[in-house]
Amino acid sequence: MSSQKVWVSEPKEGFVLGFIIDLGSDRVTVSTEKKIGSSSTVQVPYESVYPAEDDSEQDYDDNCSLMYLNEATLLNNIRIRFNKNQIYTYIANMLIAVNPYVDIKNLYSRETIKRYQGKSLGTLPPHVFAIGDKSFRDMKTTKQSQSIIVSGESGAGKTESTKYILRYLCESWGSAAGPIEQKILDANPVLESFGNAKTTRNNNSSRFGKFIEIHFEQMSKVTGGYISHYLLEKSRICSQSSSERNYHIFYQLMAGGPSPLKQKLGLEGKTLKDFRYLNRGLCEFFGQSLSDPIVHDIKDFQNLEKSLEHLEILAGDRLSIYTVVASVLHLGNVDFEDDPDDTRGGCRVKDATESSLKLAASLIGVDIDELRTSLTSRVMQTAKGGLKGTVIMVPLKTYEAANARDALAKAMYSRLFDYIVSRINQSIPFKSLNTTYIGVLDIAGFEYFTINSFEQFCINYCNEKLQQFFNERVLSDEQNLYEKEQLGVPKIEYIDNSDCIELIERNPRGILSILDEESKLPKPTAGHFTSEIHKQYPNHFRLALPRKSKIKEHREIRDDEGFLVRHFAGAVCYSTAQFIEKNNDALHASLEGLVQEQSGNQFLKGLFGKASTQVSGKLVYVSVASKFRSQLAELLDKLRGTGTSFIRCIKPNAKMIQGVFEGGQILSQLQSAGMTSVLELMQRGYPSRVQFSSLYSTYKGLLPPKLSNLDPRFFCRALFKALGLSEEDFKFGLTRVFFRPGKFKEFDQIMRTDPESLKQMVSRVTKWILHSKWKKSIYGAVSVIKLKNKIVYRRENLLVIQKTVRMYLAKKKHRPRIQGLNRIRNLNSQVQSLEQTAQKLKKNKEAGQGDVKKLQADLIAATQKIKSNPNLGPKEIEKLCQDLFSKCEMLVKSMSQRAESERIAEEQERARKVREEMERQKREKEEQERARILEEENRKKKAEIEARRKKEEAEMAIKLKTQKTVGGKSEEDHASIVMLEQDKRDTELAMRLAAENNATVDYSSDSGSTGSGSLRRNNAVINSRAGKKHDLSGWKYSELRDTINTSCDVELLEACREEFHRRLKVYHAWKARNSSRNSGISAAASRGPDIMEEQQRAPKSVYQHQHIYPTSAPSPTPSDSQRYFRIPFTKDGQNKGLWYAHFDGQFIARQMEIPPSREATLLIAGRDDMQMCELKLNETGLTRKRGAEILEYEFEKEWSKHGGERYIRPAERASLANK
Q: Binding residue per annotation — 952?
């Protein structure tokens, strides 16, 4: 026990290494190599301890190669590889990428691209290029489009991974990219300039989602591409936090734009602090006061110019693009104040910002007065009169004018972004027919801040959907495939987030639907919207009030100002103050009409499309959330129609610095990404698979014609047999062959070895085929012989059938005659008795004898008549028999009258004989009773044992029936476990958020959760301890054992035995859960109930009853009773023996195994507890097993025979101590 090497959970490092030194009731004591808190010895729950590898410093390319597949060994392997600058790791076919925050030499060079071209996954070290190559080869093999989903938190490196995948796919297998490929690559810097920004967690964070498709023709050459984008974060255009920046394009234009261009745009001589849309954020440039290995504002502007030129966007169009960008900046500087001359409470433009208004109007191409009017008032039209109704100008208040200004700026920039994406797609050829593609999805990862708004809600909703897709594709679909192919792989349970998705998108009462309904009201408010959500879902597991959060800042939010959602990655608190405004994507008709109708900037006019005929002061509602939901549904439909590869990007630390590995944060990301469930699936599953036809077409060119002409399935079976592959490394399904992790790589290497080895392999394949054909021939001959024997057997049985039919016809014809003869024969016996009676008569003896002889003559005549006439009918035979019976009856009556006097005498004689016979029978019964009593005394003890067994069996039936009535509590326990697991992830996420934002985590909140270190005890454990005299929860394992061996206090001794055996049960259960894959326990589980493996402590049938007996029920056996049992067992499937057990009260005192071919094994409690059965007597089921209990003398006879020492009971020990 002390040599067990384990990983112990620790909040900062994730896990630390240690050794088990003691076993507790609910916890295990571990000595750790590093201190946890202030001590190196800790007591932790069994759920927080995981077995460790023998060599904890050895790293593996694929985590499936680990002996123990659990989250602790996964984290340790990633840590070791990260410290070696090996940032990529596999979990089967999935790639884990840890962001190093530094360039690694030659990791993405052109030579590296060449190395990975055409190589099977696992042949070379893990790399993002290997995933790209796998998708390309899968596309060629299956003729199906592929998708690569790059996911992870902000700052985890998703954007960079996407760029490297696109580069690998476009650079023509190691050569320079062609014109089409180059355009696809040039799209990245353009999209990053207009769609990426610096955030607190990432210097180059994508603030939109994109799905980039690279289309290939049948010859696997790039023929075109297409880019879809989702949910640009428009609120960033107008405001940012103090440590964040606006979109890169604003800073690139200010830092890298040439002077003539900036003069034309009104930017010359301006600084970042001169613009409202920039000066509330971080006013610094990358490449000057800010440094980053990827982002450099001046160089990035130069690269942007080159990329736009390569994408066929001419200089005039590029100037128009920069004009829109500059007009957004100038428009943001326009400020408003109350107009004292307006009696209706309107506002006006401040005099200090008139110059900005003039520049903005000039760049937009509209009259300055018209722009001023549109910003400070809106047009309304009366309901009557249609399009020719009365038009009214309604002045706007200061805050309304500011909102209108921001809305126009966001509309201009978002339409500009749409235009740029469309121009990129126009420059890249796109052919949707007869082409396959590889799509790369890069979308914002799961986001959480101290206060979150509508953008984070949409992003996290998208990540919930992607996580559900991951569960379906990797976990659910994988297990369905195993079941369809009949592989017999056990199912894996995983956390389903469909209830969270339903909460958000349920129609009609999901959060998004409630938001749309609120936005359509005449006067929508955030408070009413939030209250409706809490009213609709008062007890939903995934939804809670802000005051139930673990973050102190969240609990300051009122109930009608926000809500808390428990996402798959943890709980996030949302403030609903701007949900309604951000969900509406429409402009006032006056602003939109101004640009559409009066703008002289044809480029900007084209962005807004045709003028609308609707003239109204009220906003036309356009739901951003509904649009995003429909786009997301189309994206998921597209993903479901493709083969999928996953890249999970990991952020190693919150400060984004190189060389720092924060294990606790990384473990939280791995758990949120579902990697632990994948580990369990891959441990039991077969991640690599290939169809028989594909395998046949791949390798038939390497084999001679006589082998390449075989049936694909037979070809694969012959190939595997010849190579001598272990059947544990692969399985044949119905349509394909499945490989264990890493085994397909070994198979591929064997197939592509040198010609001499291939020649030997061909020889083995040929030999196996000959053997197979010979076996088929022998089987055919045996089948023919069996068929011949079957024909002979049927011929012989046909004769039996014919004979039986003839017999039936004969019986049917002659049955009445035979029955008549039998009746006459029976009557003849009566006649003979009458003849004897007549001879005994003393009077009229001759007359009686004459009557009898006459009747005998009639019987003989009737018999001759029946025999001689075959056609005699049943009625005639019946009449003949009735006549004879009548004569016989009359003769009997007359004879009885004659023998009346003699009968009286005979009756008296018979009565005398009866009395004598009764006396004789009475004596025999007395003798039998004495023998029975003697035999009953001999079997008295065994009868008592059987009666006690039946009584306990009846009591067990009543208790089990009672237990069923409370069986519903198991569902509550399961729900409690799910809530505890969710609460654990919420706590970890709250700690990470608090560490990053200097927030406060308060565990004393009434959120219904316990502390991160507490463990809710099982009700059975709590009830069992209630009211007990001795509290032994703090006693050590060794102290309990010593007390049992030496104590004379019977009550203390019984309490120690109870606690000692309960800890043994917990330890053995933990050890069974964490047994290595090579252990034989699972093999034993598939055999019979009497199988007993080497490491088992009792036959399996003993352990099968421990979950049936109600744990809360009182013990049916007195604590001082001595009971003995004997059951058979089998080891190694061959050797049979007997297993003896002596129970002192409820606990085992002595145990003995007597195998037939080895010496007996004798075990005594207090000395050999770890090898003995740890169950209570009522948990073993032995008392209810027929024939299992034996007498004391039978056990002691075998115990003494094999040299067992005398057993001293606890009561005897106390009496000896008193003497």
A: no
Q: Is there a binding annotation on residue 158? A: yes
Residues 6+ apart with CB under 8 A from 119: 130, 133
1043 annotated as a binding-site residue: no
Supply the DSSP symbol for 489: P
Q: Is 257 annotated as a binding residue?
A: no
Environment class of 804 (CB within 10 Å of its CB; exposed 0-12, middle 13-18, buried 19+) = exposed
Contact 411, 425 (CB under 8 A): no
Contact 50, 68 (CB under 8 A): yes
Residue 172, phi-psi category: left (phi > 0), alpha (psi -120 to 50), beta (remainder) = left
Using CA atoms, how far apart are residues 1020 and 1043, in angstroms rounded to an integer? Answer: 25
Task: Please tell me whether 155 is known to bind a ligand.
Answer: yes
Tokens describing residue 558: 């009122």
Tell me: cis bond preceding 508? Omega within 30 of 0 counts.
yes
pLDDT at res. 231:
81
- The amino acid at 225: G
Q: pLDDT per residue over 615-638, tens digit each?
A: 444 445 678 888 888 988 998 999
Give me the residue label for tokens 């406060």.
1000
CA 400 to chain centre: 51
Which is it for the CA torsion 821, 824, 826, 832, positive or negative? negative
Contact between 249 and 193 (Cβ < 8 Å): yes
Q: Which of 549, 580, 321, 284 is nearest to 453 (CA)?
A: 580
Strands 1161-1164 and 1147-1154: antiparallel
Q: What share of the chain is helix, strand, coil (3-state, %, to 5)?
A: 55, 15, 30
| Calpha distance 730→743 (Å, rounded) | 8
Per-residue pLDDT at 783: 92
Four-point Cα dihedral 980, 982, 988, 994, nearest 10: -110
- The Cα 97–Cα 149 span in angstroms is 13
Residues of the chain with pLDDT under 50: 173-175, 385, 611-619, 1006-1015, 1080-1086, 1112-1113
Calpha distance 280→243 (Å, rounded): 9
The CB density around residue 235, as the number of other CB atoms within 10 Å, is 17
Distance CA 177, CA 185 (A): 9
Is 153 labeled as ligand-binding?
A: yes
- 389 labelled binding-site residue: no
Element (H, E) at 649: strand 643-650
Report the distance separating Cα 1019 and Cα 913, nearest Å: 78
- Tally the residues of the chain: 1219
Q: What is the pLDDT of residue 174?
A: 40
- The single-letter code of the amino acid at 87 is I
Give tens-digit pLDDT for 574-600.
999 989 888 887 777 788 888 888 888
CA distances from 69 to 53, 494, 707, 934 (A): 10, 16, 40, 66
CA 926 from chain centre, in angstroms, equals 74
> CA-CA distances (angstroms) from residue 1012 to 14, 125, 548, 573, 984?
14, 38, 16, 20, 7
| Eight-state DSSP code of residue 1010 | -
All residues at 6 or more sequence positions from 1173 whose CB lies less than 8 Å from its CB, including other chains: 1097, 1098, 1102, 1141, 1148, 1151, 1180
DSSP letters, 938-992, are HTHHHHHHHHHHHHHHHHHHHHHHHHHHTTTHHHHHHHHHHHHHHHHHHHHHHHH
653 CB burial (10 A radius; 0-12, 13-18, 19+) = middle
CB 1154 within 8 A of CB 1140: yes
- 543-569 burial: b if 16+ Cβ within 10 Å, else e: bbbbbbbbbebbbebeebebbbbbbbb
DSSP string, 1072-1128: HHT--TT-SHHHHHTS-TTB--TT-SS-HHHHTTTTTS-TTSPPSS-TT-EEEEEEE
pLDDT at residue number 1081: 44
Distance, CA of 330 to CA of 359 (rounded, Å): 7
Please state the pTM of the whole predicted model: 0.66
